[in-house]
Amino acid sequence: MRSSYGAPGARARLGLLRPLEHANLRTAAQVKELHELLCFLHAYPDDDEVFGQVGRMLRSFSGRPDVQRHRRRLVNTGIAGTDTVYPFGFSTAKWLAARCGDRLSVEWADVAQPDTVDGRLQLFSLWAERPVFDEPPLDGREWLDRLRGNETDAAFIIRRSAALPVRGMANDHLYDELGLTLRVAAGPTSPDRTRARVAGHRLVTQRAPLRLARPDIVAEIMQPPKRIRRLGERQAQPLLDLARESMVTRARDLYTFTAANLKDACLVDCGDGLEFFCIGVDPEQRLLLDAVYGILTLRNGVPIGYALFSALWRSSEVAYNVFESFRGAESAWIYGRMLAAIHAMFGADTFTIDPYQLGHHNDEGLESGAWWFYYKLGFRPWDPAIAALATSEARMVAARKGYRTGPGTLRKLVSANLFLQPGPSRRDVIGAIPTGAIGLAVTDYLTSRFGVDRERATEELAVEAAARLGIDGWRRWPAGERLFWERWAPLVALMPGLDAWSAADKLGLAAVIRAKGGRRESEFVALFDAHPRLGAALTSLAARG
């Protein structure tokens, strides 16, 4: 009955839910299945009565005797009352330590190199404590227990790592070297997905049948969202916390949520209870070229999936995921609404899917049938050999009932990008421009001119870029803008034909660079795409490789 909606369905569903509220289920699989159905109905309730029943069952789920009995078998399910075990990155680890540090512990059996942790204890202690390392009276774990006092081992390591006189990405790498797997024990402040919902969200009941058919994807893209609303930091914070909870409770990390910039967030309302929380990245961790954003997909305020997308050259690369509880429902329609939102926000007229998302070196993507999902929506490979194989395979599927693409053929198909181009035909788009060649060109230039002295290169090229573009006072700009002025200076040095540009075009390039390190990366995309000489010059530089 999961996808059956209408008045009779609501009555029948209530009749089944009520006895299950106090049932004692026999197996962990049954507990998990009930939980998944309740999560689905939390996002897609028939009416207020079903929503109330489901909400009541979810709020008390952690106290169920069957959950307590099977809690060890339910590790990493994200169900309230169960533990999550995962090697979270530093940003997520800090967030967990602040939220539920008393519930965090290190899974020492999973630490591949405990000597690395032991060595780091010197940096975590004061100088007056360090004689212990000359002739250690205690081994590393015993000394850690003395150092941490009332803190858990994980919370101590995380907080002392954050206090090191190293900042930004260097600090992240130092923590990652420890190779820690963390256990988040169940507790009132520990994240779970059982209760995950935007507080006080307006309810939209599901009275009509679900949209299960494949949409006309191009028509969907051209239909703008109902509303796109900029969020202040205070409004964005609880949504970002919900996004982080959604990843932690599924034993995952997502770069755009861990490196999020609360100053660059918006909420896209698509109607019918569907919303996208969209957030950008902190300036220090932005890519050199593409602007990257994360999306948390919400239905009735319940997280049902996430996405990662990049935008530039009026194009976008999109990685789309629907959480397992919500698959088999409106995935294709929601995907169409997501592309419509990206089109509305960034003017993207071309969309691409990276091979990894399709299953290239990614067994989960391969087994999910992602390639056929996108192909049936209208995405096509541009690689000639892959395009010919795709056409042949599509004919076989159409001609032979029950035919399935073999694993060898599928691995060939997923080795190249897929593209959807509702707009004019062109090839200067993400996924087709070999941007890696730009990085290699910069490496060759820096090595030939500066050798190993990258610091001198940064200083001298930033000064030269200011002179070439007619810019004064860049050292007094905000930190993010100065950072990207230095990061882009080698590109300015290599920019083909730059000296022939007009003064207005040069000032326009300077504005693009400043926007890259500014408050909202979306402003960088708008300025970049409005500067045709810049886009053409970088495309030309990429083609040289």
Q: Which helices and strands appear, and what pairs or packs with what?
A:
Layout: H1 7-21, H2 28-43, H3 48-59, H4 65-69, E1 84-86, H5 90-100, E2 104-106, H6 114-124, H7 140-148, H8 153-163, H9 168-176, E3 182-184, H10 217-221, E4 227-230, H11 233-248, H12 255-258, E5 260-269, E6 274-281, E7 291-299, E8 302-312, E9 315-322, H13 331-346, E10 350-353, H14 355-358, H15 363-367, H16 370-377, E11 380-381, H17 384-399, H18 407-413, E12 418-420, H19 436-450, H20 454-469, H21 479-494, H22 503-516, H23 521-529, H24 532-544
Parallel strand pairs: 9-10
Antiparallel strand pairs: 1-3, 2-3, 4-5, 5-6, 6-7, 7-8, 8-9, 10-12, 11-12
CATH architecture verdict of the largest domain: 3-Layer(aba) Sandwich
The largest beta-sheet arranges its strands as 4-5-6-7-8-9-10-12-11
Distance between the amino and carboxyl termini = 56 Å
- Rounded to an integer in angstroms, the radius of gyration calculated over CA atoms is 26 Å
How many distinct domains?
A: 4
- How would the global form be characterised? globular
Individual helix count: 24
Secondary-structure class: alpha+beta
- CATH class group of the largest domain: Alpha Beta
Number of strand segments: 12
For the residues shown, what is the average pLDDT? Answer: 94
Q: Might you state the CATH topology name of the largest domain?
A: Aminopeptidase
Q: Main sheet, how many strands, which sense, barrel? A: 9 strands, mixed
